[in-house]
Design goal:
alpha+beta; 2 domains; two-stranded antiparallel ribbon; elongated
Length: 174
């Protein structure tokens, strides 16, 4: 969806309010499926300042992604404040720049997507005490004990230096 900013271009220095509900496409982020559960809501103001239009406000959206430990669903609310300058002329050094005014409008859908993905943490957990999956048989340890009996304790499976820690606990010289 494109937002008309012609009022700001005709009235430099004046702020104009906006409120948008934008549907965002489900997509993949860092190898993970992101499913949007609500439209992105953007509220704020825009004004002509110098060579461009400053857009500032708040974004909120609800989405679902996978727990990084057990692969179960995690519902996440993303909320952020934003302030960016959009220019009438593209920067020759930035051919893929999102911050361009075309035909007196700004592509707010692409802008909202970029804001959401900048705010997302790299991983999500369904709960702070998620036990994850058994590394041998793949059983969800939150639901039941694994059938193979070879699963490490959850604390050991998430410590990359557990073997070094074991060396330091022995009374041997290293």
């Amino acid at each position: 969806m494109r937002m008309d900013v012609s009022l700001a271009l005709k009235n430099p220095g004046h702020e104009f309010p906006f409120a948008l509900e934008l549907p965002l496409r489900d997509q993949e982020f860092a190898g993970e499926a992101i499913e949007f559960k609500s439209d992105a809501r953007l509220e704020g103001t825009y004004a002509m300042q110098g060579a461009g239009v400053v857009v500032r406000g708040e974004l909120s959206v609800k989405l679902s992604r996978q727990c990084s430990k057990c692969l179960g669903p995690v519902d996440t609310a993303v909320e952020c404040e934003f302030e960016d300058m959009f220019f009438k002329e593209p920067d020759p050094d930035e051919p893929n720049d999102l911050f361009i005014i075309e035909n007196y409008t700004i592509d707010m859908s692409a802008y909202a997507e970029s804001l959401v993905f900048l705010e997302l943490p790299m991983t999500a957990q369904c709960s702070p005490d998620c036990k994850g999956l058994c590394p041998v048989c793949g059983a969800n340890l939150n639901i039941s004990q694994c059938s193979c009996g070879k699963a490490d304790t959850p604390s050991d499976t998430r410590k990359p230096f557990a073997a070094l820690e074991d060396l330091l606990t022995r009374d041997e010289e290293v």
